[in-house]
């Protein structure tokens, strides 16, 4: 994203406000304060070569520290920021730093046909790039804060809903087992093992893709314990654990045997790997990608003929949603669901299971027998 620093023609570099500034030791928050101070005096310093070089240095520091963020977060930041840059170029506006009017116009235009979550992501990306490069963050200004709140409220009043992944529930797994459990196709056996594991553990897509053989511990009763070293809500270095049923662990072993692979609990090889056009496991043990995982879920949806029932296509989040709903159906205990899914709060649990919980609510139970 360093190439997306605006190419503004440089003014005189010896502006009075920059006279005694030690740019070499300047930090992002200090540059932001310097810009604000200059702007209050009617001086625009952001195009000065020394300021531009300092902004580029800060961005390089951010890129060097990218290991602290997930690849998906970085990819999203790059994609969303580049959309903002393209809009600014098209409308002949500066984007770094961006004026309040620029951000206001951009978010307002996006709100015409974009979901409120998308607008929030736009605001986040603009904020992050400005802060990382030492530019004043326009999204913290009351004008933008109020605008964002108004845009979100309008969409809520208009009953815009947050799109939820189509749930892949236990009855779907049972149907898939009948179709794939004895299949001679390696893809069927691998995909079934993945879906059952993802359902039982409520793993997110990235967590499924990160599973290595050494994350499995074989138990004497035929089950297995899966170590989850890092999750969206746990980056402490202390892993979480989930139990795989005898069925799930058996499906994994059968997939590995059919693929000509050996379960080595000391190996760092990915548990699930690609399959070539000949239907054999690829020789290079690389983890599956997001696109492959999503295609896997879409294939399961297609095989089950769910389009005829009007059920939206499965995505890589469908097992997590479906498992949460099945657990909520049992006794309506959202705390158990929250713990099983390793959610930091019960907000997402309610979002995934609100329709299930409604049928077991106090009034629903009280009035159930009324005719």
UniProtKB/TrEMBL annotation:
Keyword DNA-binding annotated:
yes
* Family annotation (InterPro entries): DNA_brk_join_enz (IPR011010), Integrase-like_cat_sf (IPR013762), Integrase_catalytic (IPR002104), Integrase_recombinase_N (IPR010998), Phage_Integrase-like_Recomb (IPR052925)
According to the lineage, what is the superkingdom?
Bacteria
Q: Entry's SUPFAM superfamilies?
A: DNA breaking-rejoining enzymes, lambda integrase-like, N-terminal domain
GO BP annotations of the record are:
DNA integration; DNA recombination
Tyr recombinase domain residues are 163-367
Name the keywords, alphabetized. Answer: DNA recombination, DNA-binding
Can you provide one Gene Ontology molecular function annotated for this UniProt record?
DNA binding
The answer to whether the entry has keyword Cytoplasm is no
Protein name as it appears in the record: Tyrosine-type recombinase/integrase
This protein's species is: Aeromonas caviae (Aeromonas punctata)
Q: What is the lineage of its organism?
A: Bacteria, Pseudomonadati, Pseudomonadota, Gammaproteobacteria, Aeromonadales
């Amino acid at each position: 994203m360093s190439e997306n620093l605006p190419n503004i023609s440089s003014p005189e570099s010896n502006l009075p406000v920059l006279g005694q500034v030690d740019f070499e030791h300047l930090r992002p928050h200090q540059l932001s304060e310097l810009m604000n101070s200059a702007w209050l005096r009617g001086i625009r310093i952001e195009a000065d070569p020394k300021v531009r070089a300092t902004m580029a240095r800060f961005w390089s520091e951010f890129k060097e520290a990218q290991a602290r963020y997930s690849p998906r977060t970085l990819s999203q930041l790059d994609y969303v920021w580049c959309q903002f840059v393209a809009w600014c170029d098209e409308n002949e506006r500066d984007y770094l730093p961006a004026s309040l009017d620029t951000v206001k116009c951009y978010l307002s235009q996006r709100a015409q046909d974009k979901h409120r979550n998308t607008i929030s992501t736009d605001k986040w990306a603009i904020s992050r790039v400005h802060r990382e490069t030492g530019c004043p963050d326009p999204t913290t200004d009351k004008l933008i804060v109020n605008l964002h709140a108004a845009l979100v409220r309008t969409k809520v009043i208009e009953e815009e809903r947050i799109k939820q992944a189509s749930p892949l529930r236990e009855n779907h797994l049972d149907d898939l087992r009948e179709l794939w459990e004895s299949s001679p196709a390696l893809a069927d056996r691998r995909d079934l093992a993945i879906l059952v594991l993802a359902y039982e553990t409520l793993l997110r897509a990235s967590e499924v893709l990160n599973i290595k053989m050494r994350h499995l511990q074989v138990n004497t009763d035929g089950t297995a314990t899966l170590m989850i070293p890092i999750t969206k809500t746990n980056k402490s270095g202390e892993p979480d654990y989930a139990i795989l049923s005898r069925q799930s662990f058996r499906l994994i072993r059968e997939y590995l045997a059919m693929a000509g692979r050996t379960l080595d609990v000391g190996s760092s090889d990915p548990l699930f790997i690609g399959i070539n056009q000949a239907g054999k496991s690829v020789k290079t043990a690389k983890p599956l990608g997001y696109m492959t995982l999503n295609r896997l879920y879409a294939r399961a949806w297609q095989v089950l003929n769910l389009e005829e029932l009007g059920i939206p296509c499965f995505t890589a989040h469908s097992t997590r949603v479906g498992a949460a709903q099945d657990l909520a159906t049992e006794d309506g205990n959202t705390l158990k669901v929250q713990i099983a899914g390793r959610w930091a709060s019960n907000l997402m649990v309610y979002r995934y299971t609100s329709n299930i919980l409604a049928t077991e609510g106090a009034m629903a139970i009280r009035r159930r027998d009324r005719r």
